[in-house]
Design a protein that fits this description.
By secondary structure, this protein is an all-alpha fold. The protein contains 18 helices and 2 strands. Strands 1-2 form a two-stranded antiparallel ribbon. α3 packs antiparallel against α4 (83-100), α5 (105-131) packs across α7 and α6 runs parallel beside α8. The two termini are 26 Å apart.
Length: 377
């Protein structure tokens, strides 16, 4: 039991590091190494080395991804072996081990509640900054200037957790969770991140659908449906008539997004070596050379840096997490969208900014597996 507590505290430490580490865009392994090691030590001390680590397909695919990354980077004519490539390989190793020694349901619920608290704190800080006259291009967090897309990517899993606590799981403190959802959603809209806006809308619809499908239709659900519809319509009317949100509501703004130009240059890394990729970081190098920006897309990085083979491995790992019993599929899909969709608009394959959402998703999958004897077999 004490190892579970220590493991959970190390997990919380990792979440705090992800939010507060003094980096502008992402969290390198050097900041996250200590909490990851603590999680590994306490996890193994409390659980041992689980059987699923013994020549399982998941671990084999992860190790193959490491080998592919090493090969494509060492043989690349664009990039060379670097600390970033080493961090990427180490983070995959951490992911394999920590995926296998997830905390139990009780402690994972507490970890989620702590994550929601960090999310609410971040939202309140953002609202305070805007109240003081800051804008999205000059937003300062406690540890320094933060890119809005990275802040949004951190908050979106938390807002989905709060939605589940408010409508699907918790019997107490529902009003507190609802107020938290409103606060976080408001801060995300103020950030005017198109990726965060699309993710927030998608997660809200999926979570509400899950709520409606949970059991038979009741008067309470009909009332909730009416309230949800009125709220969405009112918010849409308010945003479409407010110039401050034109960045989110203007269709032309989406078509003219500079990311499309960046991705066009970054895809040259894939065209040069479509099977094995051009090495970790090659997409960013070509994106900066052509459009003076990084790719801002982890999935473009995976395809360009590790090729079709790397993308197939990543898709295998991702869709494996969605393999749950029928009653939990919509939940896992919603969680997957909240955790993974924002990663398509930031960088960070070699940082904890990418791997923390992946780890949260993987641990949710393990907890559901423990409750399903058919999947355990």
């Amino acid at each position: 039991m004490r190892y579970q507590k220590c493991y959970s505290l190390a997990y919380v430490f990792l979440i705090a590091v992800t939010l507060f580490a003094p980096e502008e865009f992402s969290v390198p392994l050097k900041y996250a190494f200590l909490p990851l090691m603590l999680m590994l030590v306490f996890g193994i001390a409390g659980n041992g080395i689980p059987l699923r680590l013994r020549i399982r397909s998941y671990a084999l695919v992860c190790l193959s991804w490491i080998a592919l990354t090493v090969y494509s980077t060492v043989t690349s004519d664009i990039v060379s072996w670097s600390p970033a490539a080493r961090s990427f390989c180490l983070l995959i190793l951490f992911f394999i081990l920590l995926y296998a020694i997830a905390p139990d349901v009780q402690y994972m619920r507490k970890i989620k509640q702590v994550y929601v608290c960090f999310t609410l704190f971040t939202a309140c800080w953002i609202l305070l900054q805007f109240a003081r006259g800051a804008d999205r291009q000059n937003l300062h967090f406690i540890s320094g200037q933060k890119d809005v897309n990275y802040l949004a990517a951190f908050m979106l899993p938390g807002v989905y957790m709060a939605m589940r606590f408010a409508f699907l799981e918790e019997q107490k403190h529902k009003l507190c969770y609802i107020l938290c959802i409103i606060t976080v959603a408001g801060s995300i809209l103020l950030l005017q991140s198109r990726a965060a806006f699309i993710t927030l809308v998608s997660v809200s619809i999926l979570c509400f659908w899950e709520y409606m499908m949970q059991s038979r239709l009741t008067k309470r659900k009909l009332v909730m449906l009416a309230i949800f519809t009125v709220a969405i319509v009112a918010l849409a009317v308010f945003m479409w008539n407010n110039p401050a949100f034109s960045r989110l509501t203007n269709k032309e703004a989406y078509k003219e997004d500079v990311r499309f130009e960046i991705w066009r240059y970054a895809m040259e890394a894939y065209r040069r070596s479509p099977i094995f990729g051009s090495g970790l970081g090659a997409s960013n190098v070509l994106g900066r050379a052509g459009a003076n920006h990084d790719t801002h897309n982890n999935y473009i990085d995976i395809l360009g840096d590790t090729g079709i083979l790397g993308m197939c491995m990543f898709l295998f790992l991702s869709f494996r997490l969605l393999k749950v019993r029928k009653g939990e599929r919509l939940h896992m899909l919603s969680y997957f969208v909240a955790c993974m969709l924002p990663l398509g608009f930031i960088n960070g394959l070699q940082t904890i900014s990418f791997w923390l959402p992946a780890l949260l998703l993987a641990h949710e999958h393990i907890i559901i597996q423990r409750e399903d004897p058919t999947l355990q077999q």
